[in-house]
Give the backbone structure.
Amino acid sequence: AQSVAQPEDQVNVAEGNPLTVKCTYSVSGNPYLFWYVQYPNRGLQFLLKYITGDNLVKGSYGFEAEFNKSQTSFHLKKPSALVSDSALYFCAVRDIGAAGNKLTFGGGTRVLVKP
Amino acid sequence: NAGVTQTPKFQVLKTGQSMTLQCAQDMNHEYMSWYRQDPGMGLRLIHYSVGAGITDQGEVPNGYNVSRSTTEDFPLRLLSAAPSQTSVYFCASRLREEAVTEAFFGQGTRLTVV
């Protein structure tokens, strides 16, 4: 069965500093990987995805993520965090070819960017 | 383009009551799904549908029913609400089951069962 782990419940960072949100995954085949962000009282918004190709994926709002197959990780990064980046971030995986092509989410990491 | 629309946004139910959470999408997506979001547990899949007339169970289906009579609509029914079903519910859609495209989410329904 596929699974996703986000080891940090919360990440605190000062505005202007680099931001990293960690994600590791487990699948039996090849993964499709996604990052979503959720602002208070809102639905999830898509940030970026890895399907195949270049291991460094660039997405919305200056975010990027690096796929590392050997470490089964897909960490989300932003070089310079903004206060407006404070939100709940979810990593998700689909196991290519698995029955139902279901999307499995991690538990979420709350990011707090302080001025 | 409205995307994925969920109604209602908030609901309070008494234990044992039934209700239907509505979900509609206007993107002609074949694949639709329902998740519940609980603190620290991420989003867990309740039911999903790969097309009109086809539904299947996800990770936590007990206590919920779904149907998919049209491409656009995918309602979630709570047959006899329990306090354990207090949660935030999200409907999502994507183009097709096998598509590599991202899922689009509704704004959520916050349900409290007392």
Summary: The mean pLDDT of chain A is 93.
